[in-house]
Amino acid sequence: MSLWEYANPKKFMGWTGPVLPWAFGAAGVCLAVGLFWGFFLTPDDYRQGSTVKIIYLHVPSALMAINAWMMMLVASLIWLVRRHHVSALAAKAAAPVGITMTLIALMTGAIWGQPMWGTYWAWDPRLTSFLILFLFYLGYMALWAAIDDPDTAADLTSVLCIVGSVFALLSRYAVNFWNQGLHQGASLSLDKEENVSDVFFFPLLVCIAGFVLLFVALVLLRTRTEIRARRLRALQLREVRT
Amino acid sequence: MIALLLRDLRLATRAGGGFGLGLVFFLIVVVLVPFGVGPETAILSKIASGILWVAALLAALLSLDRIFALDFEDGALTLIATAPIPLEAVGLAKATAHWLTTGLPLTIAAPVLGVLLQLPANGYSFVALTLLLGTPALSMIGTFGAALTVGIRRGGLLLSLLVLPLYIPTLIFGAEAARRGTAGLDATTPLLMLAGITAGSIALLPFATAAVLRINLR
Amino acid sequence: MLKVRDIAVERSGVPVLSGVSFDLAAGHALILRGPNGIGKTTLLRTLAGLQEPTNGTCEFPVDQAAYASHADGIKTALTVRENLSFWADVYGNTVPDVIWDWFDLGDLRDRFAGTLSAGQKRRVGLARLGVISRKVLFLDEPTVSLDGFSVKLFSSFMRDHHLAHGGVAVIATHIDLGLGEAQTLDLTPFAAQDDGPSDSDEAFL
User: Fold this and answer.
1) Interface residues on C facing A, Cβ-Cβ cutoff 8 A
2) A31 located within any domain
3) B126 in a domain, yes or no?
4) What is the pLDDT of residues B141-180, one digit of tens each?
């Protein structure tokens, strides 16, 4: 059986039903463990004090904000090339989750920025990039909302997602060029020298796993809702014609 | 393609064509800015190049929804789509017409309005040069946005929402080059990036424009 | 010249016609009939290449085809002559002088199209067909808002200057154009059977 058959709406509803509670459960466990470990069982940072602990929300949400857009891009490409309906609906379902992650990253960043930099907002390249990403999410969702025909909406939003990705990437380089920032370097990287120390690192990994699982669970749930809505539409159309 | 370009230019300059509205808007925004930030020469001359860029961008945005909407309403777009011109060329012709009726006049007007904003002497050439390089990208990106929203009733606001984020890189590099040039710094890198964005947009976006037009005319 | 085989079309995701087949030899016209909503416009748009058929094939010299919708695409801010020469340029032709007589536009040629009546505008829209001189025409309600005299002008253009020169035409219309040997195709029997939803919706049921 081809992998693509799992993307058939009926098959998709079939296998996601049982998976969904496990995904939510695993996300809940990871988040509970990771956040408890991170908030209460790690020492304060010698420079940043207890404010550093917001990284357990800030870093995972920022990661997922970008990954959600990547997932939408891949899903859009799959829709345009192979025309799997679930793919288009999954992209639609991921956008509100992605924009929420972006907002969480921006807000936790602002809360962290106030004690660290003395300001809630600075036009730092990373902050600005996320604000721009937020605008791209808004445009994408607005286009979905404005078009009645589901296939036309899927086609147009997919093209917008692809073109938008190119321009979002360009914006990323543009803002880097435009302003050298306050933001610290990457929290996670393969280069040991730059990395956060192990004490913070392991609970952070658990939190990231929790956010990934939460994202997967929410997107599955929302995709199932979109499939049901689409099915309802198909049934109503059939009703009208008979 | 030339025929379509000439027709659009002719339509733009006829009564009701909206030619000049963008320019007037540009003028008004530039006049309003000192009312907002105060008349101090030092402040104005510092922000002049940026204000000119933002105002030119908004003025270009203003006329985008005319690019395809009028032809869509009276059925001409359907006939053009079935005529022996590739839709990619239609997109390019429409963007060119928009640039000639909006981007080019804005580029010419910007140095004149720079006087009102106390633009420093060496800024004039840079503001004009960056707008000349950047406004074709604004027209092409806007044409893509207009094609994307052509089937949507009252899509004007949505069009702005979709196009403005796409304008960000062009604005950053354009305004940065103008600012550096005005301040007497080396502006080569942002100028090259700006030219790159314009060249890339003109090379690739006609295909995206044609794709979304096909979807919208289905 | 025009060969349509077992074509099926849908309108915004809903199948409207299926199994439509016909042949048209050079010099012949086909009149499409059927009640409103049967899918005449959708069929013509599909033949003109604006949308893909969901099934079947159609063969004709694509570079000889042209489409006229029920909207004329006349720009009101241009004169009649400018409107027509735009289409002539697009199709690589020039506006033939006889066109003014064929469609009785002689007195109107330098008027702005915005000042014309609905019927006069329609005549300009139809004159476009004479300007672009394509052999395969797909016409959607060409006679809407025309008076009896103008209908006769259009009929004689079709008969004497299009069909007589080996052109073909598929025309959706409710009135008798008097095109002589025109075939008529009633689309009612081809209405898509309610054998389920479209491809797109099917996956969800």
Assistant:
1) 12-14, 194, 196-197, 200-205
2) yes
3) yes
4) 999 999 999 988 878 899 999 999 999 999 999 999 999 9
Nearest CA in chain C to A227: C204
Q: Is residue A28 in some structural domain?
A: yes
The answer to whether A56 faces chain B, any CB pair under 8 Å, is: no
Return the bridge partners of C59, or none.
Answer: C3
**What does the pLDDT look like over A12-58, one tens digit per residue?**
888 899 999 999 999 999 999 999 998 888 877 766 677 778 889 99
- C2-190 under CATH 3.40.50.300, yes or no: yes
Size of interface B-C (CB pairs under 8 A): 71
Number of folded domains that form chain B: 1
Is A230–C204 a contact, with Cβ atoms under 8 angstroms apart?
A: yes
Report CB contact under 8 Å: A237, C197. Answer: yes
In-domain check, residue B24? no
Residue B179 domain-assigned? yes
- Nearest CA-CA partner of C33 in C189, C170, C177, C185: C185
In angstroms, rounded to a whole number, what is the distance separating the alpha carbons of residues A69 and A74? 9
Among A residues 112-151, those touching chain C with beta carbons less than 8 Å apart:
149-151
Structure tokens at A12: 């998709």
pTM (2 d.p.): 0.92
Nearest CA-CA partner of C30 in C169, C154, C180: C169
Residue A14: inside a domain: no
Q: Verify whether the Cβ–Cβ distance C67 to B14 is below 8 Å.
A: no
Give every CB contact of residue C153 below 8 A, 6+ residues apart in sequence: C102, C103, C104, C123
Look up tokens 């992209």; give the residue.
A91
Q: Does A238 touch chain C (CB under 8 A)?
A: yes
Question: How far is the alpha carbon of B13 from chain A, nearest alpha carbon, in Å?
Answer: 32
Average pLDDT over residues B123-138: 95
> In Å, what is the CA distance from A45 to each residue of A35, A38, A39, C157, C171?
16, 12, 12, 88, 80
A237–chain C nearest CA distance, Å = 8
Residue B35: inside a domain: no
Number of domains in chain A: 1
Confidence of residue C189 (pLDDT cuts 50, 70, 90): confident
Which domain range does residue A228 map to?
A: 20-43+53-180+197-241
**Is the Cβ of A3 closer than 8 Å to some Cβ of chain C?**
no
Q: What is the pLDDT of residue A196?
A: 64
| Degrees to nearest 5, angle at CA A39 with A37 and A45 | 110
Mind giving me the DSSP string for A190-237? S-GGGSPPHHHHHHHHHHHHHHHHHHHHHHHHHHHHHHHHHHHHHHHH
pLDDT value of position B116: 92
Residue A4 is assigned to a structural domain of this protein: no
Predicted confidence at residue B216, as pLDDT, reads 93
Contacts of B15 in chain C (CB under 8 A): 77
C32-55 confidence digits (pLDDT tens): 988 888 889 999 999 998 988 888
Whether the CB-CB separation of C103 and C123 falls below 8 Å is answered with: yes
- Alpha-carbon gap: C53 to the closest alpha carbon of chain A (Å): 16
Q: Is the pLDDT of residue B52 over 90?
A: yes
Q: How far is the C-alpha of A229 from the C-alpha of A227, rounded, in Å? A: 5
Contacts of A227 in chain C (CB under 8 A): 204
Residue of chain B with shortest Cα separation from A156: B212
Taking the CA of residue B106 and the nearest CA in chain C, the distance in Å comes to 24
